Amino acid sequence: MDYVSALLPPVVMAVFFIGVIRVIVKTQGGVNKTKEDAAVDAALARAEGSPAAKTDA
């Protein structure tokens, strides 16, 4: 039974990791993709101090 206790943690971690990757892949895109992209672009523009960000305010 030592082999079971030795293999259990890596198997559990692998299953958890696969689940996290699946959630990340499934949440990419979708209905809110345009809104999320616009929010990221606006945040980057504010961080860089570009003039385009100042015209939106």
What labels describe this entry?
single chain, about 55 residues, mainly alpha, 3 helices
Proportion of beta-strand residues = under 5%
Q: What's the count of strands? A: 0
Unreliable stretches (pLDDT < 50, length at least 5) are: none
Specify the biggest β-sheet.
none
Shape type: elongated
Provide the residue-averaged pLDDT. Answer: 83
Helix share bin: over 70%
Amino-to-carboxy terminus distance: 65 Å
C-alpha Rg (nearest Å): 21 Å
In terms of structural class, how would the helical and strand content be classed?
Answer: mainly alpha
Order of helices and strands: HHH
The number of helices is 3
Summarize it.
The model has no long low-confidence stretch (mean pLDDT 83). This protein is mainly α.
Structural notes for this entry:
With 57 residues, the chain is mostly helical. Helix content is 84%, strand content 0%. The chain has 3 helices and no strands. The chain has helices spanning 2-27, 33-48, 51-56. The longest helix is centred in the N-terminal third of the chain and has 26 residues, at 2-27. The termini are far apart. The relative contact order is 0.07.
Chain-wise SSE layout:
Elements: H1 2-27, H2 33-48, H3 51-56
